[in-house]
Structures are given as C-alpha cells and as structure tokens.
Amino acid sequence: MRVADPWPTMAAPKVAMLTHNVLRNRAVELSEDERSILESAVACTRSYPAGQIVVRQDVPVDVSTLLVEGFMTRHIDAKDGRRHLVAVHVPGDFVDLHAYALKRLDHDVGALTNITVAVIPHAALQEIQLHHQHLTHRLWFLTMLDAASHRHWVVRLASLNAVQRVAHFLCEMHARLLAIGRCNAGRFELAMTQSDIGEVCGLSNVHVNRVLRQLREEGLCGVRSGQVRIHDLQGLATVGVFTPDYLYLNRPAALRAVGTPGDDHG
Amino acid sequence: MVDERRYLEPQKDAGRATAENGVVILEGPDGVAVTMTAEAADLTARSLHEAAQKVRDGDSAVPSEDDGNLEDPNRP
Prior knowledge:
The structure holds 2 protein chains of 2 kinds.
Chain A (H helix, E strand, L loop, with lengths): L31 H9 L3 E5 L4 E3 L7 E7 L2 E6 L5 E7 L9 H4 L5 E4 L3 E7 H10 L1 H27 L2 H18 L3 E2 L2 E3 L4 H8 L3 H13 L3 E4 L2 E4 L2 H7 L11 H7 L9
Antiparallel strand pairs in A: 1-7, 2-6, 3-7, 4-5, 4-6, 8-9, 9-11, 10-11
Helix pairs in contact in A: 5-7, 5-8, 5-9, 6-7
Chain B lengths: L15 E5 L2 E5 L5 E4 L1 H19 L20
Antiparallel strand pairs in B: 1-2, 2-3
C-alpha cells in the first residue's frame, strides 16, 4: 500500500448524513439528536483510492476516521513480509475511534476500495465526552463492538478449519452489510480478492480457491468478481458455525443474518 | 452453572493431505490449514513418521529436569 498523500479535503456535505450507518440496526442505536451531534463533529470528508494507507501504524494522530463509503482494512505487516488483515470495515464503522484514547495505532488502516471518510478531530470527540454522556456511551459501545469482533476472529483462526473459516467470514460480512442495507436477497458486494480472504482466514490463495469451489458445489454460495451470492444462508451459517451474537445486531437484523425461515435473506 | 471446559488434547483424527494446483494442502485435525510445496510436504511427512515411531518406541519422555507439568498447583 502507498503512504497517504496530503489529504484532499472538502467541506462536509449537509444533505446526506455522513453518520447514517453508525450503529444502524445494532442492539444499541443512536437517537436522531445524537446522530446530529456526531454529524456536527465532522470537520471534513476525504477520499482515497484503493490501496492507500489512511492511518499508519505508530504515527501520532489527533483525528478519528469514520468510514462513509467503501471498504477499509486494519492490517499488520509481519516481519516476514506477510500482511495480516485483522479487520475489514464497512460504511458506518469508526475505523480508528480507539485512536482517540491511544493517540497512535498499533496497526495500519488502509483503503480496500476507493473510499470516502469523515474526519472527526479528537478535540470534537472530547467535547462530546464532556457534554454528551449518553452519546459517549454509544461511542464506547462502538469500540466494544470492535473488541467483540476481534475475539471472534481469533477463535475463527484458532478453532475452525478452512471451509468453516471462509463460511464464517462470509456470514459475518453478510450480516454487517445487511445491517446497513447493503445486501439484497443474499447478494452483496465484497471487493476482496482471494488473497484478501486468505489474509483474513489464514489460508493460501490455492486453499481459498478450493474452499470457494467447495461452497459453490455444495450450493451454499458463490463468490465472483467481488460479488457474493448466498444461495443457502442457513446452510452457510451451519458450515461456518456462525451465530451473529458478537455483532450485537438488533433482533430483526440478527434473525435475518442467519436466514430465519420466512426471511428474504436481505 | 457447570463450566464444561475442554482442554486441548492430542488429536485422534488424522489430518488429510490433498494435491491442488501444484501444491499440497494439509487440512486438520483441529484448525490446521497449511499449504506446502511438494518438497516441504515430503519433509513434513518424514518428520511425522519419525516422531510417530519415537512415540511407539517409548522414546518421547520429557527430560528429567522438566516434568512437563505446567499446571498451577493452586488451580482448582
């Protein structure tokens, strides 16, 4: 990935809510007032091309970044040259809210696709912390969601076999995109290569390729050209030992995330 | 509530190796998922054979200065 050039900046648009997807369809959601307060904390929006590093490890930061459009990753480059994807982010995710407390990151944050982000200065977050206790609790909840995901990513790598890992990951992405309205009847965009999925699941390209073929031949899902089509969500969730509890979705979204009978999968 | 923890124990199920697109994929047991070159797979197979034979020969005892017990004696 390239190091970020000086950030192009534009005034925050006032029409569409940049924070529209924050905690959308989660067990805890923002009130309209809270969303407005968070929206007003946005200093600017910025756009980056796919492949660009947005926040680099160990560099002091005084802003936090809310993903508005596109996909981002948190990744760590190991000393042997391997890149480990430790998180994939979708619109509505605060990709480095933890930097508000940490002031530097122990990982890079990069653009997986062309992205648009909203930039919120830590000074504005501090104002929220001082004057809006309930919203502060919501933001804390967001970082706890991160921690929950990380725990389950560890378990996925430690205890699931190859096909289970990929099935679990696809179910998770389906659930998260479903929550923000980016999934239609089991179809969603996932602009990830087999290498990317391999970096998430700790598998080689060849292995991912075989697993995806197996999932397709079993009639569970198809992944092609950055598009995922889930044919049998319950079957895929069973193979992936997936339950969405760690995503803290609201009840309707949680039921749809595992293909509850009568649901349209998206 | 009873905590039904299961500790990692030696696997009784074998891993399964397959050839795929010019490499060897080893899957299982447990969460093992490794892709190897044919040469690395050969060496791994030989090493596994040798280690298994040592176990059968009773030649895998822990050195006397380390009894291999990492359990905390105060832990219930």
